[in-house]
Amino acid sequence: MNTFTILCLANSFKHGGRCIAGIKTDRSGWIRPVSCQSDGTLTEEDCKLANGKFTKLFDVIKINCTEARPSPHQPENWVVSSKKWLFLGRPDTKFLKSLLKSEIKRSKCDPYVLGNASDRLEWQFIQENPLESSLKIIVPKNITWKITTPDFINRKYRVSFQFGEVLYNLPITDPEWRETLSQLPDGDYSAAEAIEYLNLQNFHPDNFLFTLSLGEPFQPRSPGDWYCFKIVAAVMNLDVYN
């Protein structure tokens, strides 16, 4: 049995369940707790803490894992045990900002997010060239939130943003931020416009942070190639430098 204490930096939708990810508080890197299912999806019950609540962003939790299960597209995966996760508290501001700044600095070493300038990576390429990381925290620029309802039933939430010299357009899987955006009519909104329209307190347009993750292999068209798509797994608003 392996025990890890992590700071939760992603709690997102995944195939009808959840995907959790965080950084170990000893600063030894990321971990993505996964289930024994083929795609690693966690159920709501898997994510329920010993106190009966559910894991939230910035929670410090202790989890027990049975084994490492790295895959070419997600090297951070560890299989969770049946033991309930323990809530240890929330980090103090100094520690939180220090950890986030370290991750932001690391992400700036790469001109692209998760390997290239596209919204996806070819699964065949990944199998031949396993990734060193599938999780990143970045400071996005020129944000535009995009809300559509193409079939008049299921709303879609995406965000376009600039990182380095590249403009990306990625889906949002953060359930809390999707719930926040759901209060807006369909349309495109700048960071400042969304904050104003939603009357978000203590938010600043320049303080958004994204946790980016790489999803499971997916075949958009059949027949066709398989890809792993990039997603915005967490949306945060925090001034880490002051």
Q: In a nutshell, what does this entry contain?
A:
The chain has 242 residues and is mainly beta.
Question: Mind explaining what this structure looks like?
Answer:
It is a single chain. With 242 residues, the chain is mainly beta. It folds into two domains: 2-93, OB fold (Dihydrolipoamide Acetyltransferase, E2P); 96-237, OB fold (Dihydrolipoamide Acetyltransferase, E2P), CATH 2.40.50. It is built from four helices and 14 strands. The strands form three sheets. A five-stranded mixed beta barrel has the order 1-2-3-5-4. Strand 13 (208-218) and strand 14 form a beta hairpin. The radius of gyration is 18 Å and the shape is globular. The N and C termini lie far apart (39 Å). The mean pLDDT is 93.
- The third-level CATH topology of the largest domain is OB fold (Dihydrolipoamide Acetyltransferase, E2P)
Structural class by secondary-structure content = mainly beta
Distance between the termini: 39 Å
Unreliable sequence segments: none
CATH C-level name of the largest domain: Mainly Beta
Question: What percent of residues are in strands?
Answer: 35-45%
Q: What is the makeup of the main sheet? A: 5 strands, mixed, barrel
| Helix content bin | 10-25%
* Structural Rg: 18 Å
Compressed to H and E, one letter per element, the order equals EEEEEEHEHEEEEHEHEE
Mean of pLDDT: 93
